[in-house]
Amino acid sequence: METVMYIAAGAGAAAGAVALAPIIAGAAGFTAGGIAAGTVAAKMMSVAAVANGGGVAAGGAVAVLQSVGAAGVSAATGAVVTSAGAAAGLVTNLLT
Fold first, then answer.
1. Which are the contacts of 4, defined by CB distance < 8 A and separation ≥ 6?
2. 3-class DSSP state for residue 31?
3. Phi-psi domain of 59 (left: phi exceeds 0; alpha: psi -120 through 50; beta: other)
4. Which of 33, 45, 60, 96 is most buried per CB count within 10 Å?
5. Residue 69 burial (10 A CB sphere; 0-12, 13-18, 19+)
6. Banded pLDDT at 43 (limits 50, 70, 90)
């Protein structure tokens, strides 16, 4: 029964992180309307653009965070992250 509790705790923590990701991204300035001026997101975009010769790399941190801020996290991504959390809970149980 203890193993189930560790798995559930890991899955629950991961699911919570998935649920909070769009909220945190939005608070940083990654919004549905684009990157908000004067925010952490704007600074990150500026740094990324300078580093990449004027553009923001597809698949980079800024692009991924903008996607999360605009559309949230897909169900498939949520399932993978939650499964990883459950696996982490199982490993934690096995190692303790």
1. none
2. strand
3. left
4. 45
5. buried
6. very high
The residue assigned the tokens 């549905």 is: 32
Give bridge partners of residue 30 from the DSSP assignment.
35
**Phi, psi (rounded to 5 degrees) for 56:** -105, 125
Tell me which residue has tokens 């949520």.
78
**Cα(63)–Cα(73) distance, rounded to whole angstroms?**
13
**Is this model's pTM higher than 0.85 or not?**
no
Structure tokens at 25: 């991204």
Total number of domains constituting the chain: 1
Q: How sure is the predictor about 40, in pLDDT bands with cuts at 50, 70 and 90?
A: very high
State pLDDT tens for residues 26-38. 999 999 899 999 9
Whether 72 and 86 have beta carbons less than 8 Å apart is answered as no
